Amino acid sequence: MPSVLTTCFHEIDYTNSSVFHFPCGLPGFEHERAFVFLNRPASHPLMFMQSVLTPKLCFVLLPVFVVAPQYRLFLDEEPLAELQLPLTSQPEIGKDILCAVIVCARGNQEPPTVNLLAPVIVNLRDRIGIQVIQTQSGYSHRHPLVPQEELTSCS
Fold it and tell me: DSSP for 22-91?
């Protein structure tokens, strides 16, 4: 059984069938094409997308509906084809695809944000993933994870 010695989770054993393939990598990480998803009950609903090539590379994700319950995803023909999904209809989040957003933490002075503009999309059946920029969506790449009013309510 293959394993990867990770920075955050020590040694992780995985099966080849648990690897999700990103044929084009991710923007800025084009050489990273194989990941395993890790769920830790104590961190729920956070998910961890661990590279099997680079032990220090692990993305922290949240299911998109946790952050934005009314999120609308649109995939045109190109991403549908890359994900090997039917071109005739939009896939259903949670049934056909995982749609998750990357959590970004920039230190203690700034609250964490999520990237709603470019979610990570995974074909759950075929284990193929991509990151898709929603150019016409109006979503931000720095959407606050915690609403501003909740950050300032302590007195």
Answer: -TT-BTTBTT--EEEEEE-GGGTT-EEEEESS-TT-EEEEEEHHHH-TT------HHHHHHTT--TTSPP
Domain range list for the chain? 3-145
Q: Does domain 3-145 have CATH number 2.30.290.10?
A: yes
- CA 11, distance to chain mean position in Å, is 22
Neighbours of 35 (CB within 10 A): 26
* Mean pLDDT along residues 79-90: 96
pTM, 2 dp: 0.89
| Averaged confidence pLDDT in the chain | 91
